[in-house]
Design brief:
Helix content: 25-40%
Number of domains: 1
Number of strands: 13
Structural class: alpha+beta
Strand order of the largest sheet: 1-6-7-12-11
Largest sheet: 5 strands, mixed, barrel
Shape: flat
Length: 264
């Protein structure tokens, strides 16, 4: 029993450390957003022009945030499932199947149960840059590497065996064979032109065009407001700290139990 309690204590203390580390990460994300002043696209353009005249073209780089409407930059983009006009899209296909698992209890009794499993076989996001515009101007946004928060979910369906999607992924079937396949879950998310978005990232001068990128931090594009995002990070940090305290408390109790078991 000693080793069981000691092992549980180690796992719980590791869990507490992970929760605290994650809480600090959530707090850091909230601070990064609140410490950056919201600007207009026009103000960013004026600042970049001023820096360029003093230091040289292509030298502007600053963390900024703007609120505006999503716009296409050039040709149209179509979501693969809905064929809707969008500035960004993501499609994920998840194979879901079941396996029959046999277990034996402490009395030697054997039982069989059906266990559902899943595996993502395809997850693709568009990488074409789009723009954010607010009436004072527009700034490009790199889709590659961007964190798209709360986009519209345009498709959420399950294609069974024999469907077009299922047929196209038959070579990727896992475990249980065709008879055990439940189907393929198809999900699509989109950002449509005209969607109000909040963009936070590092704006740089790329050949005379201002572009939002991640830089040395985060590139966030969200349909939520800054206040909602910050509140979400702070709430997550709070509950992670609660989890850390609970894990430490249970870990301490496990150490006491391990010590007591030595003298039992």
């Amino acid at each position: 029993m000693f080793f069981a309690f000691a092992g549980a204590a180690i796992v719980l203390f590791l869990l507490a450390w992970f929760c605290l580390r994650s809480a600090r990460g959530q707090e850091a994300k909230a601070s990064a957003l609140t410490l950056t002043d919201t600007s207009t696209c026009g103000e960013i353009a004026e600042l970049a022009k001023s820096v360029g005249s003093e230091v040289g073209a292509g030298s502007f780089s600053q963390r900024c945030e703007v609120i505006g409407l999503a716009e296409l930059d050039g040709g149209g983009v179509h979501a693969p499932e809905t064929r809707a006009d969008v500035v960004w899209h993501r499609t994920r296909v998840t194979h879901r199947w079941y396996e029959m698992e046999r277990t034996t209890d402490s009395r030697g009794k054997t039982s069989t149960r059906r266990v559902e499993k899943s595996d993502v076989v395809s997850d693709y996001s568009s990488e074409i840059a789009f723009a954010v515009a607010d009436g004072s101007g527009r700034v490009l946004v790199k889709a590659l590497g961007a964190e798209i928060d709360e986009p519209e979910k345009s498709v959420d369906r399950m294609d069974g065996v024999g469907s077009d999607v299922a047929t196209s992924f038959t070579s990727l079937l896992l475990g249980g064979g065709q008879s055990g396949t439940i189907g393929f879950e198809v999900e699509e998310w989109v950002l449509r032109p005209g969607t109000r978005i909040y963009v936070h990232g590092e704006v740089g001068d790329d050949g005379g065009r201002l572009v939002f990128g991640a830089g040395d931090g985060r590139l966030l594009v969200s349909t939520r407001s800054e206040r909602e995002i910050v509140a979400g990070h702070r709430s997550g940090a709070k509950w992670l700290k609660v989890g850390a305290i609970a894990a430490v408390t249970l870990g301490a109790a496990s150490i006491v139990a391990a010590i007591v078991s030595l003298f039992a």
